[in-house]
Amino acid sequence: MASLNPLSSNLDLRKAKHLLRRATFNYTKEQLDTFVGMSATDAVNSLTIDSANTLPEPYDPLPTESPDGFWISSSELPNTFDGQSRKRAIITAWWWYNAMQQTTLKHKLAFFLHTSFPVGKDDGVGSATYFYDHINLLDFYAFGNLKTIAKKLPLDNGMLDYLDNTQNNKNNPNDNYAREYLELHTVLKGAQIGPENYTNYTEIDVQQAARVFSGFKKLADRSIIDPDTNIPMGYININQHDTDDKTFSSAFGNQTIIGRETELGAFEELDDFVEMVFAQPETAKAYCRKLYRYFVKSEWSEDVETDIIEPLAEILIANDYEILPVVTTLLSSKHFYDADDGDPTDNIIGSIIKSPLQLLSEISSMFELEYPDPSTNALYYYSNFFQNFIHNRFFRAAGMDLYNPDTVAGYPAYYQEPNFDRYWFSSNTLIGRYRLIESLVEGKNTISGGDIYAKIDTVLFVKNKIANASDPNLLVSEIADLLYPESIDTDRINYFKSFLVDEGFPDYYWTGVWLQYINDNDDTTIRTRLDALIIAMVNAAEFQLM
C-alpha cells in the first residue's frame, strides 16, 4: 500500500541522489556526502532553511558605453528603458545564479509556483521590471501559503498585464484572467457536464469572478508597495469595479459575495472570493496532484490517489494551505523513496525526464562549471554566457523557453496528457540537450557557434571528486554513481571504459597514463579521453532521468 509514513531507514547514496535531484537545482557531491546517513526527515528539513539571495538584484551591463545597470531600482518608469527583452533574459540569469548558490527547496518550489501560476515573460507580462516583481512574489511565497499568493496575484502587475485583467472594467468585462484563475490556477475544471460548464465551476462562475476582479489595474510607476511582501503591486480603480453582488453557481453552493463600494471593500470581495474557491476540497486536491507530478511522477494509480494525494490534500487543508507541511511530508515518505512496496526499483526513482533547467543546473553544479562572476564581470555573465548561450541558444534548442511557456497553461510537461515530462525529450529537442555538455566541455557554442565564456574542467573534476581515478573500472563506476539514479552493470562500465582504454589495451594502460599525469601535471592525454568520457556519460540515456 502506498504510504506517507516517514522513511524509517537513513538515506543511502541512491536515496540521497533521488532527494537532492528532486528537491533542488544545486546537485553536488559534497551535498550528497552530507545526506548519506541522514534520516529523510532531517535531510528534507535541512532544505527548508531560508536565506537571502546572493545577488540582491539583476544588473544590465548594456549599452557598454553607459550601462543601464541596476535599472530595477531606478526612479524612471520601467517602460522608458530600451532592451526590454534583454532585461527579461537578464532577470532569468539573476534568478538562476541565485538558485545555484544555495542547496534549498526554495528555488525548486518557486519554480513550482511558476508552473502553477504561469506567465510568459516575453508574451504579455509587460516591462521587464514587472517580471522581476512577479519573480520576487513567487520567491517570497515559495515557503509560504498557496491561498495567500492566490490573493496577491490578482494585483501583480505582470499577471494583470499577461492575462488582460488590467482591461477588465465593470462596463466592459474581460473574463480572461477569471477563466484561467479557475481553470488553471486553482480548482481546475473537473469533468465536463455541458458546454463551457464543468464539475468544479461553470461559465456563470467565470463571469462572476470577472466581476470580482473588475477594476484591478496595473500601476506603471510601481509606487504602491504591498506591506506584506514589500513588492510593488497594482491598484483598485473603484470607479471601474462592479460594486453589485456576485452570485455563484451550485458548484460553489450558490454563494453570494456582497458587492462593496470602496477600495477596501473591493479587497474584501477578493478575499471572500479566494476563500470560497479554496474552501472547495477539489482545490486542495488539484495542488497536491500538481505537487506529486512535479516532485514524484507524472502518472499514478488509483491507490496512489487514495493513499497519497487525498491525505496530502487533507494536510494542506488542515494547515490552511501552507505548502511546506505537504511537501516535507511527501519528500520524507516511504512512497517518495519507493520503499512502500515489495519492489523498490519499479516505480519512482529515475522515473522523471529532466527538464532543460534541471539538466543545465545538475551539470553546472556537479562538474563545478566555471562561468563569469556577475558581481565582477557582469557583461560576460549576463550577456555573453547566459543570454547569448544559455537563454537564447540552449534553452530554446532544448524546448524550454525559460519563464516563457508557449501557452497560458504553462509547460506541457507539467499538465499535458499523455506525455507529460516526455515532452522534454523528442527529436526536436535532442540536439539541444546533447550539445549542452559538448559546449560546456569545449568552452564554445556547438549549437550555433561562438565563445560561451564558460568551461568544465573534466580533469579537475576527476582528480578532486573521484577516489579511484587510476582504475578505469572504478573511475567509470564512481562517476556513474554520481550521475545516474541507479548503478550501471558491467556491460555499461566496459562501454564507457572504452573512452579511456582503447580496444585491445589492458586496463593498466589508463593507470599508467593517470599516474604520469599526477607526477608531471601534463594533462594532454588524459584530458582528451576524460572529455570524451564525460560527454558520453552525460549524453547517455541514464543521465536524462532523475
Outline the structure in words.
The protein is mainly alpha-helical. The chain has 22 helices and six strands. It has helices spanning 13-23, 29-35, 40-46, 84-100, 105-116, 128-140, 146-152, 157-162, 176-185, 203-213, 263-278, 281-295, 302-318, 323-331, 356-366, 378-397, 430-442, 458-465, 472-483, 490-497, 508-520, 524-538; strands at residues 192-194, 197-198, 216-217, 235-236, 246-247, 256-257. The strands form three sheets. A two-stranded antiparallel sheet has the order 1-2. Strands 3-4 form a two-stranded antiparallel ribbon. A hairpin with an 8-residue loop joins β5 (246-247) and β6. The protein is globular, with a radius of gyration of 25 Å. The chain starts with 12 loop residues before the first helix and ends in an 8-residue tail after the last helix. The relative contact order is 0.10. The mean pLDDT is 96.
Task: Put the structure in a nutshell.
This protein has 22 helices and six strands. By secondary structure, the chain is an all-alpha fold. Helix 5 packs across helix 6 (128-140).
Distance from N terminus to C terminus (CA atoms, Å) equals: 23 Å
Radius of gyration: 25 Å
User: What is the structural class?
Assistant: mainly alpha
- Fraction of helical residues: 40-55%
Search tags:
546 residues; mainly alpha; two-stranded antiparallel sheet; two-stranded antiparallel ribbon; 47% helix; 2% strand
Fold blueprint:
Elements (H helix, E strand, L loop, with lengths): L12 H11 L5 H7 L4 H7 L37 H17 L4 H12 L11 H13 L5 H7 L4 H6 L13 H10 L6 E3 L2 E2 L4 H11 L2 E2 L17 E2 L9 E2 L8 E2 L5 H16 L2 H15 L6 H17 L4 H9 L24 H11 L11 H20 L32 H13 L15 H8 L6 H12 L6 H8 L10 H13 L3 H15 L8
Antiparallel strand pairs: 1-2, 3-4, 5-6
Helix pairs in contact: 1-2, 4-6, 4-16, 5-6, 9-10, 12-13, 12-14, 13-14, 16-17, 17-22, 19-20
